[in-house]
Amino acid sequence: MSQYSSRKKILVGITGASGVVYGIKLAEMLHAIGLLEAIVYTRSADHVAREEMGVALTDLLKAMNTRIYRDDEIDAPYASSSRIPLGGMVVAPCSMRTLAAIAHGIADNLVTRAALSTLRLQRRLVLVVRETPLGVAELRNMLLAAENGAVVLPASPAFYHQPKTIDDMVRFIVGKVFDVLGIEHSLYHKWRSGDQDSDIPGKPPTKLERRL
Fold first, then answer.
1. Distance linking the first and last C-alpha atoms of the chain
2. Domain residues for 142?
3. Is 17 marked as binding a ligand?
4. What is the pLDDT of residues 61-92, one digit of tens each?
5. Where would a tag sit more exposed on the chain, N or C end, judged by fewer CB atoms within 10 A?
6. Flavoprotein domain: from which residue to which, for each copy (predicted)?
7. 33: DSSP letter
8. Any binding-site annotation on 8?
9. Is 79 a domain residue?
10. % of residues, the chain, pLDDT over 70
11. Is residue 95 part of a domain?
12. In this structure, is residue 164 part of a structural domain?
């Protein structure tokens, strides 16, 4: 039995910011270790996936054989706070619109509703924001979201681990999410680390990795 079998599962939200690949990779890695609860995506995220990856988002997600919901499915289980997983939720990428809604308590779709329920229950909410440059409004929304209990994690890859591919950079951000969630991983070389101690078994390249 995997040591992760008793760990708390995570709900993943994918919204319409550039960098949908972050959410897909995060979901894949959580699924690989049995910690993926479900995926909620916005229609804008599907549009971005088609533009950036040349394929429908749902086609990529269905390969994981997990529960998938669109943001307008307000009758989905995660519309109720009673169904929010104990491990919390990660929104990756988190669009500025979604950030603003969460920061100001506006539950206008399934993603924001689940995120706000996560905060009300005082469970972990990680917002992988992806935008540049940032204006005063965006910075204020990040501050407000953090004051409300969210962890704001900008999709800002580092270079000290000498990434060779886009996938290396994506894995770095997913690794940072795992750090916040308290999940051991070997998704990137940590600072001044000579070896990668991994609890995540190796596996053949996924469909997504072959595309990168």
1. 32
2. 10-211
3. yes
4. 988 889 999 999 999 999 999 999 999 999 99
5. N
6. 8-181
7. T
8. no
9. yes
10. 87
11. yes
12. yes
Average pLDDT for residues 154-183, to the nearest whole number?
A: 93
What CATH number should be reported for the domain holding residue 30?
3.40.50.1950
Does residue 42 have a known ligand-binding role?
yes
How many CA atoms are closer than 13 Å to the CA of 174, on its beta-carbon side?
24
User: 176 among the known binding-site residues?
Assistant: yes
Report if residue 4 sits inside a domain: no
pLDDT at 194: 58
**Is 16 annotated as a binding-site member?**
yes
* Collapsed DSSP state (helix, strand, coil) of residue 115: helix
- Structural domains counted in the chain: 1
Contact 93, 155 (CB under 8 A): yes
18 labeled binding residue: yes
Query: For 179-194, how does the pLDDT look when each residue is reduced to its tens digit (9 = 90+)?
Result: 999 998 888 877 666 5
DSSP type of residue 128: E
Residue 96 is labelled as binding a ligand: yes
